[in-house]
Amino acid sequence: MTLREETAAPPLPVGVPSASPPAGVPAARARAARRGPAQGRGPRPSLAQVLGWTVAVLVPLVVLGMFFAWPVVATVTRGFVADGALDLSGFGDVFARPRTWRVIRQTLLQASVATVVAVGLGVPGAYVLHRCRFPGRDLVRALVTVPFVLPTVVVGVAFRSLLVEGGPLGFLGWDGSLAGIVAALVFFNYAVVVRTVGGTWAQLDERPAQAARSLGASPGRVLRTVTLPALAPAIASAASLVFLFCATSFGTVLVLGGLRHGTVETEIWIQTVQLLDLRAAAVLSVVQLVLVASVLLVAGRLRARRERALPLGTRRASERVLRLRRVPGTPRGEGRGGDVAAVVVTALTVVALAVPLVNLVVRSLRVGEGWGLAHYRALARRADGMPVSVLDATVTSVRAALDATVLALVVGVLVALVLSRRPRAAVGRRAVSVLDAVVMLPLGVSAVTVGLGFLLALHRPFGLDLDLRTSPLLVPVAQAVVAVPLVVRTVLPVLRSVDPRLPQVAATLGAGPGRVLRTVDGALAARAGGLAVGFALAASLGEFGATSFVARADAPTLPVMVYRLIGRPGAESYGQALAASVLLAVLTAVVIAACERLRAPGTVSDW
Amino acid sequence: MSETASAGPGAARGLEVRDLVVRYAATGPAAVDGVSLAVADGVLALLGPSGCGKSSLLRAVAGLEPVAGGDVRWDGASVVEVPVHRRGFGLLFQDGQLFPHRDVGGNVAYGLEGPGDARPSRATRRARVAELLELVGLAGFADRSVATLSGGERQRVALARALAPRPRLLLLDEPLSALDQGLRERLAEDLRAALAATGTAAVLVTHDQDEAAAVADRVAVMSAGRLLQVGTPTELWRSPAGPEVAAFLGFEAVVPRAVLGAGDAATVALAPGALVVASSGAGTTDGRVVRVRARRGRTEVLVSVQGLGVVTAAAPVGWTGSVGSSVPLVVDPDRVVPVGARSATG
Amino acid sequence: MSTTLTARTSRRGSRRVVAGLSAAALSVSALAACSAVGAGSSSDEDAATADASGAATGTVTLVTHESFALSEGLLEDFTAQTGLEVEVLQQGDAGALTNQLVLTKDAPLGDLVFGIDNTFASRAMGEGVVEPAELSAAALADAQEYAVEGDDEGALTAVDYSDVCLNVDRAWFTEKGLAEPTTLEDLTKPEYRDLTVVPSAVSSSPGLAFLLTTVAAFGEDGWADYWQALTDNGLRVVDGWSDAYYTDFSGGGGGGERPIVLSYASSIPFTVPEGGDEPTTAALLDTCFRQVEYAGVLAGAENPEGAAQLLDFLLSDEVQADVPTSMYVYPVSTAVELPEEWARWAPLAEQPFEVPAADVEAHREEWLQRWTDVVTG
């Protein structure tokens, strides 16, 4: 033990998160000493350790490589290889089309506007729903999350029937306009901002703000000069995620915007599926990849900053009871005006989010000229020409989602474990940061590219006599690939925020690396486990894009079933499709609400 | 508006806390239970064990906790309804709470950058920042990032920041307890000097009686939400109001004077070293040596004395004795003080 | 002493890391064995395995579009008759289906394709996706009526057809006292301004069919002008058929505002209200394009004989009688009777518009490009 001079941080009781700067120096030092697979001079890692980490790296690499990277590469290659030779002339041709530039412009415009609006509404929402306490808060939180996991088909129907001329909101004139698309994109992504920013805000140490108040800063100035700067990384991280989701949104744009507002993603779909112009699709996929990669790079940097420097207080102490009127004995002008504004904005937003959902429920109850539960009763019956009943499809969906969740958890937790290491070697550190960005790609690459890639790449992989393309297992695998990034982003912040001194303490108490992993990192990460399970389940339940490529006819998932029902004539099918959508929404809400209960205090999630 | 209404004749100058009650739960016990005190100038230390309500009292004065009963006044006018940032009360936390996104100068200047006419010019601000950094011994640190500072430097910056807008009262919440011993003592002196130099009245919350004595002009001892005694450090150590105060001030035993061998039945408290190992044969009483230890070069003996329990006795230079042996002890009258001679509040 | 101790515990711990991680790896591979989704379809897996190992009974895999449906029990009847299990794979619409078959032709997804329509037939044949088969169904002669031009060997066999026509909401026109339109030209008249909604030709099969209708009606040089006139007259183009029919169309039950929609002639019987005896909508039979759906044995199929048997089954009276109720299309077979309400309310166009499949294949991209330019302005 070396003697510390003034440079030492104050000794902090374990479990009370320190403000970052005081703990910064030694924490960083301790963190640097935390070893991953790479080692400097010192005790050599045992063979078992090396093997263990190798497996931890290999399993996710194999799964993501086989079921994501390879299919994507297979699709893109198809566009660039003509008659066995590489042909990049597609770039020139595609970029010469005015249409290409139009879709790129549209993509950037829609995603930027939607991101700005989502952040503008989401930051007050994060405050009200995560920093304040009020009765029914969990319910509202679950409600705002439902849109994020609803299949786009359902949202498209819910929105268009509202916005269409003569619809309840037809007077807005938003049908087929940029405003309509932005509204739907915000509808989807509001929860991303609320959760990402709220997770941080809920635990933000209040004392810097109080110090600022005592220095004469008004609540408004504190918000501007202390709170928002502290939240900036979280806000930026949320914004980049929303931008990513918006820029790659497919169904919403197609249903609400049509051709006029086509984006890179819808253009890839049209070129691939409808026109069979794989060359153009490949060029556009590369464009999308570049776009997504740059956003991820920025996001990764901001996240790293945030995970390093998050001044957290304890949740109980930081949360405050929401009071819109002054209680006697408290000062006037304590920013209650701001609270009122935040509550009003949030209340209006929540109502606006609820409108399409309510619309969906109302329409599902419409039977002929009257009202009733006939469409719901019909869910248990197999409709004419359908392979199974909606309830059977629900069972299929739940089974597939369970498989997908197990797979996503195994892969996601391994990835998070690897990413939480800080290798000493620069190469190792770089590898970790690259992997950090790469693991997010499944959220940003077109489902069409992946889905088509499954068909191209998974016939007899590695020469095995096994046609994976038609295997029922491909459904959960496709869903898991989308769920892995969510699991990683939920578990990783917890692992990274583990005070690096805790494992060191455990090691000096005689715990080997395995026991440290299990009893310290593992135990702490498990607190995020419930949340990760919920997100993975919900995302799997709602996944439609890639699943629709691989769903087998005899066992459609619930979203696929909704899509088929809606594509058939007859008011019966339409009503059943809406009832099935409501079922899906309720299922999702229940899963999310259950996670809210499981969510342990001190859990920060990235989305 | 409220100022004219409540500023009556005979209104006290400076801070006045009247029958203050602070509660965290509507039905639970009060964290601060009817405390009254006043600070016109100088430094008042609120001393007490953790959980005694001293921090709650401080936060209520700052405006960070709702007041459930009683009043907080400045110059005779209630400030309960005045928002935190208009009270002109500075606040210094245990761990400084510097803004990580501002450099040292930016932190110190924060309180000078408020909106409105009162905002000083850039040059004035810069001069004020330099002046305060010099005051806390960090001249030339303005451009440093706060991440590069040591714990002691951080507290100095936090102090400079709190003093910069010339608060009419400075509230210090355990400002030194996160620092190590030597540093704490040095900084306590510097803190006192800085407060004196700027003529700032202050309330200091601490659980360390040495720190209270070093910095404060007056000390208020709190326990379980109530005020036990207020006085100058000298008064306090001369005559603690009761056994509880005595125990918290570091006295080792509170006994009837008769136990010491002579005198009346009045209760007295023994400071460490109140008993001295007699260098020559006979003593007033005898004790059995439990442990011998060196403290700052002097020899201290823990002795077990009939009727007193284990107390610390001072040993003369060159004394040698062994654990278990019996030693004669004499009383150092300067280290024995009467208990309960004065009223609880002063 | 203490060093040895640490070293020992550390090694023990490491072993546990390995154990944990290997368990994780194993659980991934074990997913296949104990997955929840796998549990539901083990019989299919067994069948597939049996087929792969060359056993006598087998599986025939039908690749089709997402609208494929047959009444319950039909495919089971086929299995009972032939001993062949049917596995069904559904992929997008007719266009997506065809394109995916083209992309996977080196390793076909299954044995038989059903659902390639006459707008994509040339592509499927030109790319060599399907190959001729020996068929024996009685309805084969009827199917010949709809054979693709130039398909002399019978690589594609017609199974059903339907007419894509404009539908009108009669109730709406009666209420407004406006005469229903009857021709394509009518739609460009001022009195029908803002009344029409059609699905996009790019993203919907009936949408493409309607584009071809106009190509056939106005010729290579005239169709774009017609669309310009339509657009100028307030035409609405939406993503897909269901969107147009349920959201925008006033007669589809979704409460839309527009009384003219592009749909099918066979949509009409579905608008007979409960207790009523007359549909509330009508098809404009002078605006129809005939869509024919074909089936064919995939080139390189593992089980071509099974595929041919299944194709024969699709032409059997059993299936042909079922397609009106299960897929809302007309059977090619003249031997089966149409449901009663179809006979009454879903008459066919006498002279539907047609564009030769080869022309469609040659010009599709160019037409779609031009069409997109016109309707998006």
From TrEMBL, chain A:
<feature type="transmembrane region" description="Helical">
    <location>
        <begin position="50"/>
        <end position="70"/>
    </location>
</feature>
<feature type="compositionally biased region" description="Low complexity">
    <location>
        <begin position="25"/>
        <end position="45"/>
    </location>
</feature>
<feature type="domain" description="ABC transmembrane type-1">
    <location>
        <begin position="104"/>
        <end position="297"/>
    </location>
</feature>
<feature type="compositionally biased region" description="Pro residues">
    <location>
        <begin position="10"/>
        <end position="24"/>
    </location>
</feature>
<dbReference type="Pfam" id="PF00528">
    <property type="entry name" value="BPD_transp_1"/>
</dbReference>
<feature type="domain" description="ABC transmembrane type-1">
    <location>
        <begin position="394"/>
        <end position="595"/>
    </location>
</feature>
<protein>
    <submittedName>
        <fullName>Thiamine transport system permease protein</fullName>
    </submittedName>
</protein>
<feature type="transmembrane region" description="Helical">
    <location>
        <begin position="278"/>
        <end position="299"/>
    </location>
</feature>
<comment type="similarity">
    <text>Belongs to the binding-protein-dependent transport system permease family.</text>
</comment>
<dbReference type="InterPro" id="IPR035906">
    <property type="entry name" value="MetI-like_sf"/>
</dbReference>
<dbReference type="GO" id="GO:0005886">
    <property type="term" value="C:plasma membrane"/>
</dbReference>
<keyword id="KW-0472">Membrane</keyword>
<keyword id="KW-0997">Cell inner membrane</keyword>
<feature type="transmembrane region" description="Helical">
    <location>
        <begin position="473"/>
        <end position="492"/>
    </location>
</feature>
<feature type="region of interest" description="Disordered">
    <location>
        <begin position="1"/>
        <end position="45"/>
    </location>
</feature>
UniProtKB/TrEMBL annotation, chain B:
<dbReference type="InterPro" id="IPR027417">
    <property type="entry name" value="P-loop_NTPase"/>
</dbReference>
<dbReference type="GO" id="GO:0016887">
    <property type="term" value="F:ATP hydrolysis activity"/>
</dbReference>
<protein>
    <recommendedName>
        <fullName>ABC-type quaternary amine transporter</fullName>
        <ecNumber>7.6.2.9</ecNumber>
    </recommendedName>
</protein>
<keyword id="KW-0813">Transport</keyword>
<keyword id="KW-0472">Membrane</keyword>
<dbReference type="InterPro" id="IPR003439">
    <property type="entry name" value="ABC_transporter-like_ATP-bd"/>
</dbReference>
<dbReference type="GO" id="GO:0015418">
    <property type="term" value="F:ABC-type quaternary ammonium compound transporting activity"/>
</dbReference>
<dbReference type="Pfam" id="PF00005">
    <property type="entry name" value="ABC_tran"/>
</dbReference>
<keyword id="KW-0067">ATP-binding</keyword>
<dbReference type="InterPro" id="IPR003593">
    <property type="entry name" value="AAA+_ATPase"/>
</dbReference>
<dbReference type="InterPro" id="IPR050093">
    <property type="entry name" value="ABC_SmlMolc_Importer"/>
</dbReference>
<keyword id="KW-1003">Cell membrane</keyword>
<keyword id="KW-0547">Nucleotide-binding</keyword>
<keyword id="KW-0997">Cell inner membrane</keyword>
<feature type="domain" description="ABC transporter">
    <location>
        <begin position="15"/>
        <end position="249"/>
    </location>
</feature>
TrEMBL record, chain C:
<dbReference type="GO" id="GO:0030975">
    <property type="term" value="F:thiamine binding"/>
</dbReference>
<protein>
    <submittedName>
        <fullName>Thiamine transport system substrate-binding protein</fullName>
    </submittedName>
</protein>
<dbReference type="GO" id="GO:0030288">
    <property type="term" value="C:outer membrane-bounded periplasmic space"/>
</dbReference>
<dbReference type="InterPro" id="IPR005948">
    <property type="entry name" value="ThiB-like"/>
</dbReference>
<dbReference type="GO" id="GO:0030976">
    <property type="term" value="F:thiamine pyrophosphate binding"/>
</dbReference>
<keyword id="KW-0732">Signal</keyword>
<dbReference type="GO" id="GO:0015888">
    <property type="term" value="P:thiamine transport"/>
</dbReference>
<feature type="signal peptide">
    <location>
        <begin position="1"/>
        <end position="32"/>
    </location>
</feature>
<dbReference type="Pfam" id="PF13343">
    <property type="entry name" value="SBP_bac_6"/>
</dbReference>
